[in-house]
């Protein structure tokens, strides 16, 4: 039977630390899987079957993990400058390099769609023809909340699309759903696959900057952040440093990694 893990965290660093702690509970919260296709093919990772998390104050500072110096391990996020660069380049921009199949920003701020001719009482009517138009989903959501208020279940930032099934490495982030409740903008985020050590902390910090931007433009506060994934994982290269961050002794971690690599 698949296992569901739920965490409730105060802020982003707390959410990351709790996930790191839980994923190392192999057999209880996670299981070891061999990577068949994608990043690190042929290697192993510890992975949650399904995890959901509620972050009560995602805008509380600091946004990135703090690693005690005595542990002697690298911070998974270089600095807030790196987060701000990620936010500007990969979430807010439609710039895509020649070797990039997609970026999250391209999908969110310049999504190609068939132009709408008319929205009727029951149906949406599209213009005929093959031409397409680019839609900035962020601006559209902001405008709809400002014009029609919070009672709307339609306003979701879509990243995934059907053609992604043909890509070798399709987008990990699939969508960011939104809701305005009690004067605050709440985010509901789904990742199909997610690197807990190298991706989770910078992804959520960057998405928080997006949440702050949209909340300010709508004229509301920043609310909670919820995340879900059926593939949040820790690659083998990070098992030992994750164990140190969790506080596992060196002897215990040596035994654990030995068992994991032998299994």
Question: Mind explaining what this structure looks like?
Answer:
This protein has one domain (4-68, 75-262): Thymidylate Synthase, Chain A, CATH 3.30.572. Helices cover 31% and strands 27% of the residues. It is built from seven helices and 14 strands. It has helices at 12-23, 80-91, 104-109, 137-148, 200-218, 239-246, 250-262, and strands at 4-9, 30-34, 44-48, 50-55, 111-113, 116-119, 124-126, 133-135, 156-158, 173-181, 184-191, 194-195, 221-229, 232-235. Strands 1-4-13-11-10-9 form a six-stranded mixed sheet. The longest helix has 19 residues, at 200-218. The chain starts with a strand and ends with a helix. The mean pLDDT is 90.
Give a concise summary.
This protein has 263 residues and is an alpha+beta fold. Helices cover 31% and strands 27% of the residues.
CATH architecture: 2-Layer Sandwich
Poorly predicted regions: none
N-to-C order of helices and strands: EHEEEHHEEEEHEEEEHEEHH
CATH topology: Thymidylate Synthase, Chain A
Q: What would you give as the CATH superfamily?
A: Thymidylate synthase/dCMP hydroxymethylase domain
How would a textbook summarize the main sheet?
Answer: 6 strands, mixed
Quote the beta fraction: 25-35%
The order of strands across the largest sheet is 1-4-13-11-10-9
What's the overall average pLDDT, rounded? Answer: 90
Per DSSP, the total helix count is 7
Total strands: 14
Return the CATH class: Alpha Beta
Q: What is the 3D form?
A: globular
Distance between the termini: 20 Å
Oligomeric state of the chains?
A: single chain
Percentage of helical residues?
A: 25-40%
Helix/strand class: alpha+beta
